[in-house]
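In response to the reviewer comment on reproducibility (Comment 2.3), we provide here a single inverse folding case reported in full, input and output, so that an independent group could reproduce the run without further information from us. The structure tokens appear first.
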């Protein structure tokens, strides 16, 4: 036996590892100050502007960008398109980690987070937040169950893995239903502020827009995650799987874009764009970068089948999605609040740290669990060496 093959990999402290360590210290300090002395000590939130970066980015973006999980599992297990199965596990892991860190971010933002359990005991079925809370809790559980066979396989627990596999289709159906409910309900939160949310973003169709845009951005996130995983772990980009997904993303973005333009026309808000108001400029940046540009790139097969342009198009789709959620939660509410909101450095550090922790845990999971299938052509040379 070649004992060299069994030696553990040497840990190398690279740029991102050093950055993560440097962020960890202020993150822990901010966490202490937030829970010991309150939101006012670490945020720029106030009674006029109670929802900021932690809701707009961590919650609204985090939940939406994790939509690739229910999209891919539905494609594979409900529509029986098994060729996409190789990218299901990393996508489910991304979704699961995304929801876990959304919950962590919510703990930072809630005034009294220790009362989060009240949603379980004290029911208020007339509240959109109640429905979102239950759907997020249940869907996080569903994602944990969908990912659990990976853990069971690693531990050699074949019986529990077979049991979960037997219930996989009902789990996927439940996950799709729960995702549909809370992705759209996040948009429903803003239906109660028709006079406060700027007409460039307000619409009675916000729940449907939130759902469709999450599908488009979720697919974009799958493409980006595949690209970044390939760069980090030396894997090739599965163009035969990602190219058809990009086509679906173009369709979703096209439907979403038409709905946005129709709503703006109905609200008579095009004057804000043509006169280049502050809100108009922010809308143009969001719409051109996040809808027009990715559609313009990926609608053409020649560009869509090129790995560089595929990743660029997916990046701008995700960027536009993030801008849209921040515009709805912040930009569109500033005029009614009569104040400009800029997140504090502490708010930014917490958000960046949570994203960094998610990436680090994903990397560890790939290292210790069978997340990616091992291609035979890459396995044989290694086996020959050993």
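Designed residues, in position order:
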């Amino acid at each position: 036996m070649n004992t060299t093959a069994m030696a553990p990999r040497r840990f190398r402290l690279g740029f991102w590892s050093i950055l993560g360590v440097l962020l960890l210290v202020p993150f822990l300090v901010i966490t202490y100050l937030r829970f010991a002395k309150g939101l006012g000590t670490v945020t720029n939130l106030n009674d006029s502007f109670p929802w900021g970066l932690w809701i707009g980015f961590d919650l609204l973006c985090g939940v939406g960008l994790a939509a690739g999980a229910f999209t891919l599992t539905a494609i594979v297990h409900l529509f029986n398109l098994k060729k996409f199965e190789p990218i299901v596990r990393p996508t489910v892991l991304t979704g699961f980690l995304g929801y876990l860190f959304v919950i962590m971010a919510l703990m930072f933002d809630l005034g009294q987070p220790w009362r989060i359990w009240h949603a379980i005991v004290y029911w208020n079925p007339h509240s959109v937040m109640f429905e979102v809370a239950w759907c997020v809790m249940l869907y996080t559980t569903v994602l944990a169950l969908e990912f659990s066979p990976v853990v069971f396989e690693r531990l050699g627990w074949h019986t529990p893995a077979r049991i979960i596999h037997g219930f996989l289709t009902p789990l996927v159906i439940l996950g799709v239903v729960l995702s549909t409910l809370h992705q759209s309900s996040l948009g429903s939160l803003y239906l109660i502020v028709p006079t406060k949310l700027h007409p460039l973003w307000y619409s009675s169709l916000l729940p449907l827009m939130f759902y469709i845009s999450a599908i488009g951005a979720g697919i974009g996130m799958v493409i980006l995650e595949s690209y970044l995983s390939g760069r980090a772990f030396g894997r090739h980009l599965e163009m035969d799987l990602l190219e058809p997904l990009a086509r679906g993303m173009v369709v979703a973005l096209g439907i979403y874009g038409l709905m946005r333009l129709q709503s703006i026309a109905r609200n008579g808000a095009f004057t804000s764009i043509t006169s280049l108001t502050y809100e108009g400029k922010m809308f143009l940046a969001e719409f051109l970068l996040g809808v027009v540009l990715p559609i313009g790139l990926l609608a053409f097969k020649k560009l869509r089948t090129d790995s560089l342009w595929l990743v660029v198009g997916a990046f701008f789709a995700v960027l536009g999605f993030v801008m849209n959620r921040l515009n709805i939660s912040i930009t569109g509410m500033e005029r009614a609040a009569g104040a400009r909101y800029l997140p504090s450095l502490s708010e930014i550090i917490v958000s960046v740290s949570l994203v960094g922790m998610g990436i680090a845990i994903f990397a560890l999971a790939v290292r210790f669990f069978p997340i990616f299938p091992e291609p035979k052509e890459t396995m044989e040379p290694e086996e020959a060496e050993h």
